[in-house]
Amino acid sequence: MKTADVLNHSNDEATSLNGFAHEEIGDEHLLTGMETPMRSDAFKISDEDKQQKIAHYFSEIMETLGLDLTDDSLKGTPKRVAKMYIEEIFSGLNPQNKPKIALFDNKYQYNQMLIEKNIQFYSNCEHHFVPFMGKAHVAYVSSGKVIGLSKLNRIVQYYAKRPQVQERLTNQIATDLCEILQTENVAVIIDAKHLCVSSRGVKDDSSSTITSYYGGVFNTPNKIIELQNFINN
Ligand SMILES: [Zn+2]
Fold first, then answer.
1. 126 given a catalytic annotation
2. Measured between alpha carbons, how far is residue 76 from residues 52, 55, 91, 154 in Å?
3. What's the domain count of the chain?
């Protein structure tokens, strides 16, 4: 490739990334899309095969760091990490793990907002693969259908168990709830602490990040204040 080609190529890339370099996108945690960027062949290999591959590559990382994998303490780590990735912390990448949701008729005709607050979650920053965690508050006004309260929690956990960006997590939970509940009247607020901000980088241990989605009736100043009062009290 000629130098001019290289320059053109990187210019194109800079345009598509709004003028940011990949390094900046990651370090500043900028969001590039609302969908989790997945490969089209994401599920062509089984979970067992994925675990084997991840264990292999993770042992390479550890060895490259200079760690002695024959040590009893480290021996099991690659496999342990692979199992944790697939079965736990990144299990939300697989649509098969999506919680099954049953809808019920809103028999009692309760037509005010319902808030499930302080849903504790753990997710992982997709730019650094270190945890971010916090509380999600979810609210909706029934369009005639309701779901079990524990399902609100399960939906939050499902989307949290992906490499994530907080804005996307907020939107994915909201969009899914709108679809399940067949209403636009959904709100999601997430207050989270990012270990990649507190334990490295700027090492700020006191800041937290708040993201929100206010759909339908929630998207008015009065409703937002009402919602925030419920959440803060
Ligand atoms: Zn990060």
1. yes
2. 13, 9, 21, 30
3. 3
Is position 125 annotated in a ligand binding site? Answer: yes
Determine, yes or no, domain membership for 96. no
Pairing between β-strand 131-141 and β-strand 186-194 as defined by DSSP bridges: antiparallel
Same domain, 165 and 54: no
Task: Give the pLDDT confidence of 97-131 residue by residue, as tens digits.
Answer: 999 998 888 877 777 889 999 999 999 999 999 99
Active site residue 56: no
pLDDT above 70 covers a percentage of the chain that reads 93
Q: Which of 29, 51, 137, 196 is catalytic?
A: 196
Residues within 5 Å of ion ligand 1 by Cβ?
125, 127-128, 196
Told to judge if 166 belongs to the known catalytic residues of this protein, a careful annotator would answer yes
Establish if 95 belongs to a structural domain.
no
Residues 26 and 46 grouped into a single domain: no
| Separation of CA 130 and ligand 1 centre (Å) | 7
Q: Tell me how far the alpha carbon of residue 37 lies from the centroid of ligand 1, in angstroms.
A: 16
Q: Which residues pair with 186 in a beta bridge?
A: 140
**Distance of alpha carbon 107 from alpha carbon 117, whole angstroms:** 23
In a domain, 176, yes or no: yes
pLDDT tier at 172, thresholds 50, 70, 90: very high
Q: Residue 81 belongs to what domain range?
A: 39-89
**Beta-carbon neighbour count of residue 167 at 10 Å?**
17
